[in-house]
Amino acid sequence: MHTFDLTLDDISKIEGKASLSVKIKDDTIEEIQFKITEYKRFYTQAIRGKDIAAIPQLCARVCGTCSNAHLLCAIKAIENGLGITPSSQTQKLRELLNFGLNIRDHALHLYVFVLPDLLGIDSILDLDENKPEERELLEDTFSVKSAGNTLSKVIGGRSVHAPFPTIGGFLIVPKQELFEGLIKELQEVRPAVLRLIERFSNYSFLLAQSIQFVSLIDSDYSFLKGEIITSDGKVIKETNVKKYLEHVVIPYSHASGYTFAGKTYFVGALSRINLAKKYLHKNTIKDAGSILDRFPSENAYDNNLAQAIEILHCIDKSIDILENLKVEKEPPIPIVRKECVGVGVIEAPRGMLFYRLEMDNVGKIINADLVVPTGQNQIGIEKTLYAYISANIQKDQHELSHDIEKIIRAYDPCMSCASHFLKVKWERLSAKRINNTGNIFN
Amino acid sequence: MDKKLKIGWYSFSCCEDSTIIFTEMLNEHYLEWKKVLDIRSALILQRRDHHDEMDVAFVEGAITSEEQEKKLKDIRVRAKKIVAIGACATIGMPSGQRNLFDEEKQKEIAPILTRFKYAPSVKKLSDIVTVDSVVPGCPMDENIFLQVLTKYLKEFGIIIS
C-alpha cells in the first residue's frame, strides 16, 4: 500500500506560476489540488472607468504570451458594441497577426516546453549543436519560432503588445515590400513543421477521458470569427455564449474555473481540430495526410499534435493571404462613442477567449467580464490528473512527478491569463459543491 | 571549460512579456549565448534551479506580496548584479494598478488580498533592493537588454572587446 504526499512547486516550462499537491493514503488519493499561484493584477477592476481607446493596449498586458489575442478580442468586443465593421483589409491583417501569434506561441510550447520531455533532457538548450541530428532540432526550434515572430512584427509592429492594430483598423499598415521575404521565411520552415508533426504523431501517451470540446469555428479556420460549436452538437452565437459559461470558485487557486452547460470541457488546439479539421488549409490536409485520422481524439496529450498541425495551417493560410493582399493606406474607422454592450469571442492559441464590455455614452468602461482559456481548462486539468494518478499510484514518485508535469504541459496552461482578474461575487458563488478530495463535481 | 557568465532569469507579478521577448531573442542568439551564459535558473527554459550564487540576476515583474519580497531579497544575496527587466520591475506598472484604486475597487479586492496574503501595496524592485541596471519598456527594449548583457559579459571578463 502506498502512502505519500507529493508536492510540485513552481512547475517549470509553462507560462507563469502553478503548483500541485497530492495526498495519497493507502493507494487512494485523499486530496489533489492544482493551484494557479500567480498573483492577481486585477485587470477587470483596472479597466473600469477607462476610455475604450485605451482598453485594447491595456488588456494586451493581461498576458505577454498571447498579448495579441487579448488585443484582438478587446478590439472585437468594442467594435461589436459600437457597430463598427472592419474593412476586408483590416480583417485579413488581423488574421495574419493572429496566425503569427499561433505559430510563435505553439512553437514555444512544443519545442521549448514539451520536446525536452520526449527527448529525456531538461532543456532544449542542452542539445548538442555539434551533433547533426540535435543541431537540426535546435535549428528547427528557433527558425519556426522566428517565422511566427517575424510575421507578427511585420503585420503588427511588434510580436508582443503589437502597436499597429486599433479599434476600427490599423494605425500603421504593414509595408508590402516586406511580404516577399516573409513568404519565403514561412515556406522555408514548412519542412521543419512537418518533422514536428511526424515526431508528435509517433509519440504516444494516453490520457483517455470523456470530455466536451468547445471552440469558435468558421469555415476558414480563421480563429477570429464564426460560431461556438460543441462536441455534443450545440451551435451558439457569440452573443449568447455567456449563459453557458458557469464560473466555479476553486478556493486554493488564484484563478477561477469554468464549466460549460454544467459540464467539464476542453478548449484549445485539440478542440478546434476535433471540431473543424475539415476546414484546415488544403495544403495542411494534404501534408498531414493520415495523421489527421487520429482526430477527433479524446486524448488530452494529442493537444500537442493538434498544435503542431495548426502551426502548418497558420503558415499555409498566411502564405495565401500574403500572396494575394495589396495593402492600401486606410485610416481606422472613426469611433462614435455610445452606451452599449460589446461581446467579442476569438480563439486564442490556448482556446476560446471571451470579452464582454459595457460602455457608457462617453466611451468609458462600466463593467468588464473576461473569460480566458486556462480558466476554462482548469477543472479538466485537475480531473485528468486525478484519473492518471489513481491509475498509476504504483509508479515510482519521481516518474509520477515527471508524468504529472507532462500532463499539465499538454494542456499548455497560461497562468498570467488565468490570474489576471477577480470575480467580485466569489463568496456567493463558492456554494458550488466541492468534495473532500478537493475535486469539483458538476 | 571557458568561463561563463552565471545568470538567473526570474519573474514576479507581470504578464511575462519580457520573458517572451527573451525567448524570441534566443532565435537569433542561442548559439552565441550557449557559449557565454551558464543559466543557473530560468523556469521558462529548464526545471533545474541551482539556487546558488550568480553574477547577474535578471528580474521581471513587480512585487505584490511579502513572499515575493523575501524571494527577491534572497536573489539579491546570491547575485552580484540585479537587472530590473521591463516596466513592472522598473516602475511597478501596470501590475501595480491596484495601488491607484478608489475605495470601491479596494473594497472589492480586499477579500482576495487577505486570503492570499498580498502586501498592502505593489512595489517596484528598487523599493526593496538595490538595482544595478534597468531595461525599461513594456515589453523590455531588446537593444537596451543587449547593451546591458554585453556590459556585464565584459565586466565579468567573459568577453574582451
TrEMBL record, chain A:
<feature type="binding site">
    <location>
        <position position="417"/>
    </location>
    <ligand>
        <name>Fe cation</name>
    </ligand>
</feature>
<keyword id="KW-0533">Nickel</keyword>
<comment type="similarity">
    <text>Belongs to the [NiFe]/[NiFeSe] hydrogenase large subunit family.</text>
</comment>
<protein>
    <recommendedName>
        <fullName>Hydrogenase/sulfur reductase subunit alpha</fullName>
    </recommendedName>
</protein>
<dbReference type="GO" id="GO:0016151">
    <property type="term" value="F:nickel cation binding"/>
</dbReference>
<dbReference type="InterPro" id="IPR001501">
    <property type="entry name" value="Ni-dep_hyd_lsu"/>
</dbReference>
<keyword id="KW-0460">Magnesium</keyword>
<keyword id="KW-0479">Metal-binding</keyword>
<feature type="binding site">
    <location>
        <position position="420"/>
    </location>
    <ligand>
        <name>Mg(2+)</name>
    </ligand>
</feature>
<dbReference type="GO" id="GO:0008901">
    <property type="term" value="F:ferredoxin hydrogenase activity"/>
</dbReference>
<keyword id="KW-0560">Oxidoreductase</keyword>
<feature type="binding site">
    <location>
        <position position="63"/>
    </location>
    <ligand>
        <name>Ni(2+)</name>
    </ligand>
</feature>
<feature type="binding site">
    <location>
        <position position="66"/>
    </location>
    <ligand>
        <name>Ni(2+)</name>
    </ligand>
</feature>
<feature type="binding site">
    <location>
        <position position="66"/>
    </location>
    <ligand>
        <name>Fe cation</name>
    </ligand>
</feature>
<keyword id="KW-0408">Iron</keyword>
<dbReference type="InterPro" id="IPR029014">
    <property type="entry name" value="NiFe-Hase_large"/>
</dbReference>
<feature type="binding site">
    <location>
        <position position="414"/>
    </location>
    <ligand>
        <name>Ni(2+)</name>
    </ligand>
</feature>
<feature type="binding site">
    <location>
        <position position="370"/>
    </location>
    <ligand>
        <name>Mg(2+)</name>
    </ligand>
</feature>
<dbReference type="InterPro" id="IPR018194">
    <property type="entry name" value="Ni-dep_hyd_lsu_Ni_BS"/>
</dbReference>
<dbReference type="Pfam" id="PF00374">
    <property type="entry name" value="NiFeSe_Hases"/>
</dbReference>
Automatic annotation (TrEMBL), chain B:
<feature type="domain" description="NADH:ubiquinone oxidoreductase-like 20kDa subunit">
    <location>
        <begin position="26"/>
        <end position="151"/>
    </location>
</feature>
<dbReference type="InterPro" id="IPR037024">
    <property type="entry name" value="NiFe_Hase_small_N_sf"/>
</dbReference>
<dbReference type="GO" id="GO:0051536">
    <property type="term" value="F:iron-sulfur cluster binding"/>
</dbReference>
<dbReference type="Pfam" id="PF01058">
    <property type="entry name" value="Oxidored_q6"/>
</dbReference>
<protein>
    <recommendedName>
        <fullName>NADH:ubiquinone oxidoreductase-like 20kDa subunit domain-containing protein</fullName>
    </recommendedName>
</protein>
<dbReference type="GO" id="GO:0016491">
    <property type="term" value="F:oxidoreductase activity"/>
</dbReference>
<dbReference type="InterPro" id="IPR051349">
    <property type="entry name" value="Hydrogenase_assoc-protein"/>
</dbReference>
<dbReference type="InterPro" id="IPR006137">
    <property type="entry name" value="NADH_UbQ_OxRdtase-like_20kDa"/>
</dbReference>
<keyword id="KW-0560">Oxidoreductase</keyword>
